[in-house]
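Q: I have 303 residues here and want to know how they pack in 3D. Can you give me a structure?
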Amino acid sequence: MKKKWIVLLIIAMLGFAGCNSKDETSNSNSEAIFPISIKDTEGIETIIDKSPEKIISLSPGITENIAALGGLERLVGRTSFCDYPPEVLNIKDVGSLYQPDAELIASLEPDLIIAGAHTDPETLKNLRDLGMKCIRLYDSANIDGLYENIITTGKILENEKGAQDKVSEIKANIEKIVNLVKDEPKPKVYYCLGAGDTGDYTAGGDTFINAIIEMAGGENIAKDITGWSYSKEALIEANPDIIIVGAKTGFFEQLPQMDGYKDLDAVKNNKLFAINENYIDRFSVYIDKGVEEIAKIFHPDKF
C-alpha cells in the first residue's frame, strides 16, 4: 500500500509543471443527439440525457482535452493538478487527483464528472450514489486508448468532428517523427520517475510512456516489467545510454550524487536530460509534443 501511494504521489507531482503554449480546437458544427450512451475505460455504461453544461474534470489530461476541444467554458471544477491552459486556474479547485473533495464536487451540481486513472474508486462510488453521472477515462499502454478518449470527449462536447480532426493531427505528427528516426540506432533509455529512499520507479512495458520512448526511437530498459516499480540492481545491470527525468522533480541535480546512479554511463557521459514532464506524463492531446521532445534527445541531428 505504501508503494502504491508513493507511485501516485510521484506521478501527481510530475503534473505540476506548466506546459508551453498550445492551440485549442473550437467546436465544429457536428452535434451529438442526446441522450447518448458512453462506455468508459472501465466498461461502465452511462447514459447522458442532455448536453452537459457543467462538467468537472478530475485529471489534468482530461482538462487539457476538454479545453483543446472547445469545452473550457463548461468546466466548473478541476483538480489542484490541472494547471493548463492558464484559464483553468480561475475554475474551482476541488482537491487532489486521488481523493478530491466529494462534498465540494456535489455542491457544484455538475451534469457530468470525468475522472482519470488516479481518482479514488470510493469517491466515485459516493458521487454516483448521490445521483451524479461519473465516467472514468484513464491511461492505457496503447496510444490508441488516448485516441478513443479524445473521441469520447468530443462526443460529450458535441464536437466529435473536431476530436477526429485532432486525432488525425496527432497521428500525422507522430508518424512524421517515427519515420524520421526509424532507421537510427536505438539508445538504451531509463525514464526516472522516482529514486532514493522511497524506491526506484520508472515506466514499464505496459505504460504509455514506454510507447512514447519506442515511437521516439529508443529502447526502454524497463520494457520487460509491468507497472512502475523497478530495482536499482536491474538499472545498474542494464546501464542505460540515456536517463530522462522530469524538470520539476529535482532528479537532474540529485542523481549525479546518488549511489547506484552516479556511476552509470549515462551520468558519467552527460547523457542525463531534464524535460517538461507534462508532455510525457499527461495522457492528453499534446502527447505528440512529448514524442518530439524525447526524439530530439535521442536523435538531435534529425531535427
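Q: Anything worth noting?
A: The CA atoms of residues 199 and 229 lie 8 Å apart. The chain is about 35% helix and 15% strand.
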